[in-house]
Amino acid sequence: MPQSRRYLTLGDLQDDETLQAVFEAAAESVRSGTAQARRGEPTGATCLVGGDRLVLASGVLEFVLLRVPADEFDAEAAKAFVEQARQLLGWNQISYTLRCWVETRLCEGWFHNAGTRWQKEWVRNTEMDPSSLPPAFFDFACYVALGELKYGPSYAFVSANEIFGWVSALGSDLPARLKRHGSGALPPELARFRTDSVTATANDALAVIRLRVLEESKEAYGTALGYLIELLTTTEFPRTYAIEFRGPTKTYLPIKGLPKKGVHQFFAAAAAYRVFVRPSNSTLGPPWVSSSGTAILKTSTAPCRAPSRSSPSAWLTQHSHRWSWSTCASWTASINRSTGSSSRSMWPSMASRPRRSPTWLLV
Predict the structure, then answer these.
(1) Residue 99 dihedral angles phi and psi, to the nearest 5°
(2) What pLDDT does 281 receive?
(3) Strand partners, 198
(4) What is the pLDDT of residue 51?
(5) How many CB atoms neighbour CB 42 within 10 A?
(6) Which of 7, 105, 220, 329 has a CA between 20 and 30 Å from the CA of residue 293?
(7) Residue range 189-204, pLDDT digits in tens
């Protein structure tokens, strides 16, 4: 280890196996939830405490995942460890190491890189038989892909789809099953939702919400908006997602250049009603439906003004008890100049994270 560096990496362990106890101590602290994250000098890299030494956090993850023989790899144990690491460090701190694991375990040997070192293009080696690969590898690789969708930046769906593609190319039907049925992590009442006026399905593997309004009414759109809010604020549904919509009103948001997508049809129709979704109330079950099964709405005749550019946080504090999602849709659309290659473009940043400061409304 260079004298200027005050933390250990996996390379140091490979050079000196006596350091294994340090790595094991750091890994055990993650499993037990007692890990301490520190900045390692001189680079400021994120490290974990292992006994009386600092270990590079990504090195601890590599130690746990890569040094296990293929026939002993336990996908569930690996997922549990990564969940602990994610909660401690954040997904962005561990996603690169996880993708490297996928490439090492699934790509190298079974694919060849037709690209460059920095821009890889994995092409399947058809002469290689992947039947010896353990199912646990496919299970964990799909877990990484789902993590990219749930916790990664908006462009991480590209990485997720690549991983799903590699797993499928190696003969596993797990990606196809996930895309048909989702991961199973969503509550059943949110994965499939139905009333007399609204039907909806949510697939967290595809990152798609399919929404259908059966009748044109304020209650129907209030129920639909309430469903979206509940799904996107109470679950770990992917941050980047698409809304596929079907409804009786064929109008679209009147914005020049905005494509005629279902999501823009939905919010144009909803904006015709001044719909306010009732805040969550545990005594009434799901916040968008009363105990009798009817939509719970609040309406207002007072205008709901857009936030001031100078004080969006103050606006949020003042109006947080009665967000008008249909009205906000028109604000969002008016500042969104997406080409609309998919319906991921306009609403997700607002609908999926209403808990945060609404500064993203302003341009």
Answers:
(1) -65, -40
(2) 43
(3) 213
(4) 85
(5) 10
(6) 329
(7) 999 999 999 999 999 9
DSSP string across 317-340: HHHGGG--HHHHHHHHHHH-----
Measured on CA atoms in the order 340, 255, 325, 296, is the torsion positive or negative?
Answer: negative
Please name which of 136, 320, 159, 316 lies closest in space to residue 238, comparing C-alpha atoms: 159
Strands 208-213 and 242-246: parallel
The encoded tokens of residue 177 equal: 């099953």
In this structure, what are the phi and psi dihedrals at residue 50, rounded to the nearest 5 degrees? Answer: -125, 95
ω into 42 cis (within 30 of 0): yes
Contact 47, 35 (CB under 8 A): no
Burial state string for 60-92 with b = 16 or more CB within 10 A and e = fewer than 16: bbbbbbeeeeeeebebeebeebbebbbebbebe
Measuring CA to CA, which residue among 133, 201, 119 is closest to residue 162? 119
Query: Which of 70, 60, 58 is closest to 24 using CA atoms?
Result: 60
Measured CA to CA, the distance from residue 174 to residue 231 in angstroms comes to 24
User: What are the boundaries of each domain within the chain?
Assistant: 1-55, 68-180, 188-361
Helices (H), the chain: 10-15, 20-32, 57-66, 75-89, 91-102, 135-151, 156-169, 174-181, 188-191, 218-234, 262-270, 312-319, 325-335, 348-351
What DSSP designation does 280 have?
P
* Measured distance CA(188)–CA(254) in Å, rounded: 36
Tokens 């969708």 correspond to what residue?
149
Distance CA 35, CA 178 (A): 33
Contact at 8 Å (CB) between 306 and 323? no
Provide Rg for the chain, Cα atoms.
Answer: 24
DSSP-based helix, strand, coil % in the chain, nearest 5: 45, 15, 40
- Amino acid present at 294: T
d(Cα 13, Cα 1) in Å, to the nearest integer?
10
Are the beta carbons of 29 and 20 closer than 8 angstroms?
no
CA 347 – CA 349 distance, rounded (Å):
6
Query: Does residue 311 surpass a pLDDT of 90?
Result: no
Angle at 131 between CA 129 and CA 135, to 5 degrees: 140
